[in-house]
Amino acid sequence: MKTKASILALFFLSTIISSCAKKDIEHKEKETTGFTELVVPADFNWKMSENVTCNFTSEHVSKVYVSTGANTTPFASFYVGQDVDQVKLNIPTYINTLYVKYETKAGLSTAKALDITNNTVTYAVPADSEEVETVLAYSAKTNLSRGNDQAVIFYPARENGWGTLMFEDLWPAYGDYDFNDLVVNYKMQLYPNNKNMVKEMILGIRVKAIGGSLPYDLCLAIKGIKAGEIDEFEKQESNNALENADMELLNPGNSEKKPPIFRFNNIRTNTKAPKGFAFLNTDPDKKARIQEGDMVNITFYITFRNSIPQADLTLDAFDFFIAKPVKEKASQWQEIHTRGYAPTEEFGQNVYEQTKEGNSYIGKSSIYYTSNSNLIWAINVPTDIPHAYEKADFLKAYPHFKDWATSGGNQNKDWYENTTGNRNDSYLIKQ
Question: What are phi and psi of 404, to 5 degrees?
Answer without folding.
Answer: -60, -50
